[in-house]
């Protein structure tokens, strides 16, 4: 069961750490979009990526959801490095990364539950799905807990 739960916790941790802790700090002055508009675009692109990937299960099944967790952690590290060092020259690169973030998160969610449905026995399936449902909540809660102090720390550096 941990084979399903741990990757989903990690994906959601990294995903919501980006969303809660970094989105507001990924601000570009060299664009016509205001800070609030940039934030709204980030949210829209993230949700579009989630929607697209959750709708794509028939096209592509991913058995190894730990790979999605690793990729989402790389997204987190990359965007955190950009907040710290400011090396990305254009908001459009961030737009692509955030769309990709949503694609990874949605794919991890839908494939985790699809894999449980296919790979667990009938007698354990309902429990496995119910237990795995806490994964997203756990990842989101942990990310919020850690994103708050990190966000404050990064704001004090400016």
Automatic annotation (TrEMBL):
What keyword terms does UniProt attach to this protein?
Lysosome, Membrane, Transmembrane, Transmembrane helix, Transport
The GO annotation for biological process reads: lysosomal lumen acidification
Intracellular or extracellular location(s): Endomembrane system; Lysosome membrane
Q: Which Pfam families match?
A: CLN3
Tell me if Amino-acid biosynthesis is a UniProt keyword of this record.
Answer: no
Gene Ontology cellular component terms for the protein in this record:
endomembrane system; lysosomal membrane
Among its keywords, does the record have Membrane?
yes
Q: How does it sit in the membrane?
A: Multi-pass membrane protein
Q: What InterPro entries does the entry give?
A: Battenin_disease_Cln3, MFS_trans_sf
Residue ranges spanning the membrane: these are 6-28, 64-85, 91-110
Q: Which family does it belong to?
A: Belongs to the battenin family.
Name used for this protein in its record: Battenin
């Amino acid at each position: 069961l941990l084979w399903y739960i741990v990757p989903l916790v990690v994906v959601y941790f990294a995903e919501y750490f980006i969303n809660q802790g970094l989105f507001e700090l990924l601000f570009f002055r060299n664009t016509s979009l205001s800070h609030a508009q940039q934030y709204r675009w980030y949210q829209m692109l993230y949700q579009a990526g989630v929607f697209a990937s959750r709708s794509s299960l028939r096209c592509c099944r991913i058995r190894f959801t730990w790979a999605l967790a690793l990729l989402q952690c790389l997204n987190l590290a990359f965007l955190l490095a950009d907040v710290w060092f400011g090396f990305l020259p254009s908001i459009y690169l961030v737009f692509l990364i955030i769309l990709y973030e949503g694609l990874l998160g949605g794919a991890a969610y839908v494939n985790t539950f699809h894999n449980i449905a296919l790979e667990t026995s009938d007698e354990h399936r309902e429990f496995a799905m119910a237990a795995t449902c806490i994964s997203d909540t756990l990842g989101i809660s942990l990310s919020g807990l850690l994103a708050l102090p990190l966000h404050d720390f990064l704001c004090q550096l400016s």
